[in-house]
Amino acid sequence: MITKTGIYVHIPFCESKCFYCNFVSGNYSDKIKEKYIQTLFNEIETIKDKRTIYSIFIGGGTPSVLNSRLIVNLLEKIRSNFNISKNAEITIECNPNSLNYQKLKAYKKAGINRISIGIQSLDDGVLKLIGRRHNKSRAIQAIKMAKDVGFNNINVDLLIGITKNKTIDGDVLFLKKLGVTHISAYMLILEKDTALFEKVKNGTVKLLSEDESIEQYNEYLKTLRKYGFKRYEISNFCLKGCECKHNINYWECGEYYGFGVSAHSYIDGVRYFNSNNILEYIENFNNKTYEKLTDKEKIEELLMLGLRMTKGVKLTSLNQLGYRILENKNALKMLSLNLIKTNTQRLYITYKNFGIENQIILKLI
Ligand SMILES: C[S@@+](CC[C@H](N)C(=O)[O-])C[C@H]1O[C@@H](n2cnc3c(N)ncnc32)[C@H](O)[C@@H]1O
Ligand code: SF4
């Protein structure tokens, strides 16, 4: 069932905290950064594994805030410890403010072949409202620089559901013309413990209502499709052949090593994860939490993650774990209502029912 292995490296550093974000990330001193990177290298060295790695994702946080020399060293360390496939997809998450030609050239030379830039919006008012440090022109410049340096696989992250946007069509077309090949369009989650949550609570910020957000999302769906960005996962859209291999491996419940604070790994049916606290991680990266998944839990994961993708989940993977779709009453009912479908290989949610994917998945579990 499991075919490919990926590596995720978490870089928890950002220049400042965006108002909406509760990822494990923040602004730390150079001393902490140094200690963290050293710990990361030590953690990577502990794994002696001969299996081939098909994708590497350096995420965060904002890895591009680091000196590019550290990213180059990090990739050298990974290469010296693992067998990396010649065609591996290697992604780095960046934000527009911290990118420049020198860093991008160093990334390219080190074998990074996919750039993911958090632009969030092309509206300066929105960027300010959500506490981003960059503006529209910096976002455009960052994409142009990545293209100039020769990156042909460029993702941008967008946030949906903040304020009204009358320029969705123009924005998507513009991004395509700039050379963007992949768009992650995330519906804003108003997380507790964020500055935005407080601002909404005390009335200083008013976000779109749920209905307005859904309407905006549908407008994005229509427009992305119009310009050739095919939806292949709930929030992910790309031009032909530009799907993110690393994320597809997660959604297919493939194996991955995770390094760094809060990073999760899933190897040989065992999931384990590091502390969410950077100081605890630095103090003892070996202090991991282990969870061996039962077959029932594996089935739940396959359904919950696999059905996020438009192509759905492999029937053979479900069968191997003893889940028979035709023996599940709820599944039969949903098949008859065309909410889900099967082909010879997969079970998938029909396109127009993606808005209620959570209810469908819960009924299948
Ligand atoms: C971990 S960030 C990495 C990118 C980079 N640090 C940046 O922000 O430019 C990945 C993406 O998660 C998304 N994200 C963060 N917080 C979110 C929230 N509360 N709701 C929806 N998406 C969120 C943003 O679109 C962000 O670009
Ligand atoms: S959205 Fe990105 S840049 Fe902003 S705080 Fe979160 S990880 Fe950092």
What does this structure look like?
With 365 residues, this protein is of the alpha/beta class. The chain folds into 2 domains: 5-249, Alpha-Beta Barrel (TIM Barrel), CATH 3.20.20; 294-365, Arc Repressor Mutant, subunit A. Helix content is 39%, strand content 22%. Strands 7-8-6-5-4-3-2-1-9 form a 9-stranded mixed β-sheet, with helices on both faces. Strands 10-11-12 form a 3-stranded antiparallel β-sheet, with no helix packed on it. Helix 3 links the parallel strand 3 (83-94) and strand 4 (114-120). Helix 1 (30-46) packs parallel to helix 2 and helix 2 (68-81) runs parallel beside helix 3 (101-109). The mean pLDDT is 96. Iron/sulfur cluster binds at residues 14, 17-18, 21, 23, 25, 60-62, 95, 118.
Descriptive tags:
Arc Repressor Mutant, subunit A; 365 residues; 9-stranded mixed sheet; TIM Barrel; binds iron/sulfur cluster; 2 domains; binds S-adenosylmethionine; 14 helices; 3-stranded antiparallel sheet; alpha/beta
Topology of this structure?
Blueprint lengths: L4 E7 L18 H17 L5 E9 L7 H14 L1 E12 L6 H9 L4 E7 L3 H6 L6 H14 L4 E7 L7 H11 L3 E6 L7 H7 L8 H17 L3 E4 L2 E3 L6 H7 L3 E5 L4 E4 L2 E4 L4 H6 L5 E4 L2 H12 L6 E2 H6 L8 H8 L3 E3 L3 E4 L7 H8 L1
Parallel strand pairs: 1-2, 1-9, 2-3, 3-4, 4-5, 5-6
Antiparallel strand pairs: 6-8, 7-8, 10-11, 11-12, 13-15, 14-15
Bound molecules: S-adenosylmethionine (SAM) and iron/sulfur cluster.
The site of S-adenosylmethionine (SAM) has 17 residues, from strand 4 and strand 5.
